[in-house]
Amino acid sequence: MAEVKQTKPDERQDRIKKLELLEKNKINPYPAKVSRDFAIGGALEKFSELQKKEKEFYIVGRLRSLREHGNLVFADLQDESGKIQLAISKKNIGDDEFKLFLKTIDVSDFIQVKGRCFVTHKGQESFEVTEYKILTKTLRPIPDEHFGLQNEEEKLRKRYLDILLNPELRDLMKKRAQFWDVTRTFMKDKGFFEVETPTLEITTGGAEARPFKTHHNDFDTDLYLRISVGELWQKKLMAAGFEKTFEIGRVFRNEGSSPDHLQEFTNMEFYWAYADYEDGMKLTQELYQRIAKEVFNTTKFKTRGYEFDLAGEWEKIDYREEVLKQTGIDITKASEAEMKKKLKELKVKYEGDNKERLTDTLWKYCRKNIAGPIFLINHPELVSPLAKRTEKNEKLTQRFQIVIAGSEIGNGYSELNNPVDQRKRFENQQKLLESGDDEAMMPDWEFVEMLEHGMPPTCGFGFGERLFAFLADKTTREATLFPLVKPKF
Questions:
Q1: Containing domain of residue 46, as a range?
Q2: pLDDT of residue 435
Q3: Which of 151, 178, 195, 249 lies 20 to 30 angstroms, CA to CA, from 231?
């Protein structure tokens, strides 16, 4: 039995000729109407029953192989649910139709077939075709199923082919969807109301990152793509009388690319009135443990050279004490010059020379040595412009970050609701922006006005798809359906 070859150097032109032949025979190569009685996986599940009935039915899919043997062609037909072997013979479909099939149909074409279940003499469950119809004539072949795409850039650029050829990648994307389904169900079960907030903003509040900028022609004003999932908007909903809200949505940050840093990604944020960061830690620990069990069927993980277990109670680590322990620098007392000297000793590159950036860089050096899961607490006010101060020390804040595998995988606060304090912190952020710090937070004076009307004590928290990537032991880029790729042309 000979495999039908699909490796001609002028294959695209050859397929165009086949397309023209179909049209010459008054056959639409791209019809809209499709007949389908079963998905292939469903037909295979009911194979014995359908075989006994000897009833003909329709299935559809993409041809993954063709094997010609005289007056008989064996083919593999695949849809999302599974794959089945077809037997297409001159006897069953007629001489003219069989000849046209050989002249016009290629591997990777989509077809509809009518027929019945049967078992070959070798015992393989198959489908005997009595009628076929072209659904999509392809002009380019797909790569070999066994070798797939070898070039990493081509895999990302032609993601649709990589997904088609890689069952593991398809399963990863389904698991990603389950990850967000479990998150959404958990939040709703806890009484949170799902909301949608603006993607275009006049100022980008809620995080420190460089935004994407655009222009609104009708208003003649510059706008920004949001860098958080509606943090300031959801807090306004707390003032509006809602007590539990959450949103799962896309955020955008005009920053560098890496395997774990994307310009566009999915985050979830919730806001919970009359709760503080202690309540937030309890809720998020329960959420992460639920995700681990329901999506990955375990609480124990290995990723990026770290091992950790999400089960049980998580340790709390003090921000200042951890930096002091690992570097010898007391961030509450050290000067900027001392911080720079230490970073140079540690051979750590840093951007910006203000105390906020230097403090954050020292912490990021330290976090790489923590497998987690832990809650990082007692952040300096300097790096937490939206968090309430602690009652014991006004230089520290009621903020918590979840650290897993040396990275921050979640961030929450007892939200600042003192309008006077918030105004002062925004003024400080404004000075940082004016000094050239592109990642400083843009002040939102309408938000301050809202706080003057009154917002209840509130806990806010957010995490993103990086958590899924870490638990799946993939880079964030790998765990995204269509990550951004630099244009080829």
A1: 2-142
A2: 81
A3: 178
| pLDDT tens per residue across span 374-399 | 999 999 988 887 789 998 888 899 99
User: Residue 464: what pLDDT?
Assistant: 93
Same domain, 90 and 169: no
> Domain tally for the chain?
2
Q: How confident is the model at residue 1, as a pLDDT?
A: 44
**Within a domain: residue 172?**
yes
The answer on 106 and 173 residing in a single domain is no
Residues 413 and 292 grouped into a single domain:
yes
pTM: 0.87
Does any domain span residue 157? no
- Residue 138 and residue 206 in one domain: no
Q: What is the pLDDT of residue 8?
A: 58
Structural domain includes residue 355: no
d(CA 283, CA 280): 5
Burial class (CB in 10 A: 0-12, 13-18, 19+), 99: exposed
Q: For the chain, which residues score pLDDT lower than 50? A: 1-7
